[in-house]
Amino acid sequence: MLVASLAAAGCDSGGAEPAPKPTPSASGKPTKLTFGVYGPADEVDAFQGVVDVFNSLSDDSDVTISTYADHDGLIKAIESGDDVPDVFMASRSDLAWLLEHKLTQPVDEMLDERGVDFGDGYSRDALQAFSADSRLQCMPYGISPMVIYYNKALIDFDRMRARGLDAPDLGTEAEPRDPRWSFEQFTAAAQFATRPRKQTRGLYVDPTLRGLAPFVYSGGGKLFDDDVDPTSLALSDSDTQAALEQALVLLRNPQLTLTERQLDRATPLQWFERGRLGMIEGFRSLVPELRQVQGLDFDVMPMPILDSSATTGDITGLCISAAAASAPEAADFLVHALSPDSVGRVVATGYLAPANLEVALSDTFLQPGRLPDHASVFNSSVRALELPPLIDSWAALEAAVAPNLQELLTVPVLDLAAQTAQIDEESRAVLDPTAASESPSSSP
């Protein structure tokens, strides 16, 4: 209902009316606003350019950037009691915590008043990602689905088909096809990339909830026992068991994935950059770094399909602080930051997969002639995005189940039912601590 109402509002406004001129502050002086951002230096420079343009056009607001080394740096600054920036970046995983502590204010009505086009400008998944309590709490800014990065020197689909192997057909430059592949084709690619003489391995998947989630969802399973208010993970669910049984045949294969000894020597990303690993999972933010690796020819594919297309995402939004110096003027800046020109300035650095559809479909994002060849995969994969429940303890949840998830992919003899039941039980201590403390199994 929320998404439908936002779409209707966008259609009513037409998305073409100019934003109203801000009301001058009572003092006659520009209102001082802060914009909290994080990211690599060149991306932060692009944000600074967005701010500079706004300041040159506005007599009523003066925006200053507050920069943080990364996402955790910004959130820790907020948690420590520092002033919350008037407008700031946040991850969807922060939303539950931000709402619990009443640190933001809904943006839907303010943006609707300023003619922001919800109907055609943003995907349903992007709007749902930052919706709660029947309101749009923050404006979606980046939506980067998890995809598979692959080394084209180790995995050549044309050569695979010439050898009679099952491989996806990407078409030709003149007649390209929408990239997609089955789990069987994904397995064949991992086998093709594994070359003992050259000491290469086929793939690596992180033994984390985030790393395994696309395979669980694609196989018809579920990650949590409830999509709204989970009390535990659901890896022991029968459908999830079936998905894991299929995926783990490949993901646990010690001949095709990195060994513990190799992981002690370098990270999976480093092995990939050295040309010794065929495939890794990743988001759009990897692109600039991989482009800098001399001799590395890489491309992207969507997550493989077990039963249906599915993936997870790295989703960011722009929020307005509940204690903003001026909510109307913060909203005016937010409209400027969300404009195609402003988003395009940031997208051009290569890190951001934009939630704005106009920019996502433009050459500014697709960057033809530059790696990866099939950047459109980031756009098409949004349709397969699975949004987990809004919980404020994701990091604690990952930490609680990390040892058993590691064993799920590495223990030589696996009792899947027992292992997943143990993981689900450990998750209750984070997701439903009261019930977990009363459970007989949690007693000393």
Report on the architecture of this protein:
With 444 residues, the protein is an alpha/beta fold. It has a domain of 214 residues: Periplasmic binding protein-like II (D-Maltodextrin-Binding Protein, domain 2). It has 22 helices and 12 strands. The strands form 3 sheets. Strands 1, 2, 3, 4, 7 and 12 form a 6-stranded mixed β-sheet that branches. A 4-stranded mixed β-sheet has the order 9-10-8-11. About 4% of the residues have low confidence.
From the 3D coordinates, which CATH architecture of the domain at 2-144 and 314-384 would you assign?
Answer: 3-Layer(aba) Sandwich
Structural class category: alpha/beta
Describe the main β-sheet briefly: 6 strands, mixed
Radius of gyration: 23 Å
CATH topology of the domain at 2-144 and 314-384: D-Maltodextrin-Binding Protein, domain 2
* 3D shape: globular
Number of helices: 22
Number of strands: 12
* CATH class membership of the domain at 2-144 and 314-384: Alpha Beta
CA(first)-CA(last) distance: 47 Å
CATH fourth-tier homologous superfamily of the domain at 2-144 and 314-384: Periplasmic binding protein-like II
Average pLDDT for all residues: 91
Question: How much strand?
Answer: 5-15%
Which stretches are poorly predicted, pLDDT < 50 over at least 5 residues? 7-23
Approximate helicity band: 40-55%
